[in-house]
Amino acid sequence: MDFKLTEEQELIRSNMREFALKYVEPIAVELDETARYPKEVIQKLSEGGWMGMPFPVEYGGQGTDYLTYAIAIEELSRSCAATGFTMSVHTSLALMPISIFGTEEQKKKYLTPLAKGEHLGAFALTEPGAGTDVGAATTTAVLDGDEYVLNGTKTFCSNGPVADTFVTFAWTDKSAGPKGMSSFIVSKDAPGLKIGSHIMKMGIRASQTSEIIFNNCRIPKANLLGSEGSGMKIAMNCFDHGRIGIAAQSIGIIQAALDESISYSKQRIQFSKPISKNQAVQWWIVDMATDLNACRFLTYNAGWLKDQGQPFTKEASMAKLFCSEAAMKHTVKAVQIHGGYGYVKGVKVERLMRDAKITEIYEGSSEAQRMVIAGNILR
Asked: Given this model, what pLDDT does residue 151 score?
């Protein structure tokens, strides 16, 4: 068993760390305070080829493996989880389904500019009354000649306000149950598509989130992704890939919390000694570092399985579950280590704690992950 990363993977880690420290870290506090979309950072990521890492070169990508991409998300999220999530949604949830299920024409028209970073992708599945219960969605798509007409409202659409291309889901035959949902590629300028207001969030505030409203939205018949009725399959495949990205994001958050905790505990003097000499603080930091290693093993294993063409649904859910819950647990401890200063706006661990919470919720809550894992080990 070889746990050593390749030279290319280590180089990617180093390059992304350098990029994040130069372009992301200096503005991370401002991005959080203003909830501003980091357009200039995304532009630089595009110029560096980061926005299409695991996709073939012929479609504008870099041709890296998925594990390498996860490492990049980890390092980017270490400086700003919101920026890491923007890249993750674009790659895992918008580009990946087009790459796997798209026609050659769709790949040339949509995947290529997305992979090059010329366009930004978004994923629109969740509805006001349909979260984990995807089957409760009400959005419909009716074929009218050479066009589909979409009607319905999506919510919590990450990248929604700034995206150029949406992968969305609607019923083409509600009576067929799960086999009646289909997936579509929708351009932002499609007639009848409206971007709702920006949803303000507790954490990952620079990540742009909104409602997407389809009001007799007309798209070409050629924008059907996969075949009619394959929407549920496509959505679940998206989540398998996306959960590796969220696990990687969580790792970046934990690593940052550990970095900050070690640094502060060595500098903070109480009772004539650094608090790093206190056993309680030491144990919190030890637990943080131990879980961080476990998170990496789980996530890298899931990424490796995906790259080997092996099933990875269970492993992706395990990684997402463990990493997200570890991120929440250890950012709380990081705030505790910082004491009153940890509760102050602008102090990094305060932001990390707020950012960590959403990792337990989006792309399948912790409870949903346990359902997926149980379904795989108890069948």
From this structure: 98
55 with 61: CB under 8 angstroms? yes
Confidence (pLDDT) at 128: 95
The answer on 177 and 60 residing in a single domain is no
Contacts of 289-295 with C-beta under 8 Å, sequence gap 24+, read: 289/258, 291/254, 291/326, 291/329, 291/330, 292/251, 292/254, 292/255, 292/258, 292/326, 292/330, 294/322, 294/326, 295/247, 295/250, 295/251, 295/254, 295/319, 295/322, 295/323, 295/326
Residue 112: per-residue pLDDT: 98
Q: What confidence score (pLDDT) does residue 282 get?
A: 98
Give the active site residue among 260, 315, 350, 363. 363
150 Cβ partners below 8 Å, 6+ apart? 139, 140, 141, 168, 170, 184, 186, 192, 214, 216, 217, 218, 219
Q: Confirm if 128 and 137 have CB atoms less than 8 A apart.
A: no
Give the 3-state secondary structure of residue 127: strand
pLDDT digits (tens, 9 = 90+) for 231-249: 999 999 999 999 999 999 9
Is 163 contained in some domain?
yes
CATH label of the domain that carries residue 264: 1.20.140.10
Integer Cα distance of 146 and 368 in angstroms:
38
Listed residues 200, 230, 260: the one ending a domain: 230
Q: Is 260 a domain residue?
A: yes
Q: Report the CATH number at residue 42.
A: 1.10.540.10
- Residue 78 within any structural domain of the chain: no
Report mean pLDDT in 10-residue bins for the chain, 379 residues. 90 98 98 97 98 98 98 98 98 98 98 98 96 94 98 98 98 95 98 95 98 98 98 97 98 98 97 97 98 98 97 98 98 98 97 98 97 95
Q: Cα 86 to the chain's mean position, in Å?
A: 7
Instruction: Please check whether residues 239 and 345 belong to one and the same domain.
Output: yes
Q: Cβ distance 170 to 184 under 8 Å? A: yes
DSSP string of 135-151, one letter each residue = GG---EEEEETTEEEEE
Together in a domain, 160 and 274:
no
Indicate if 291 and 314 belong to the same structural domain: yes
pTM for the full predicted model: 0.97
Does the annotation count 363 as an active-site position?
yes
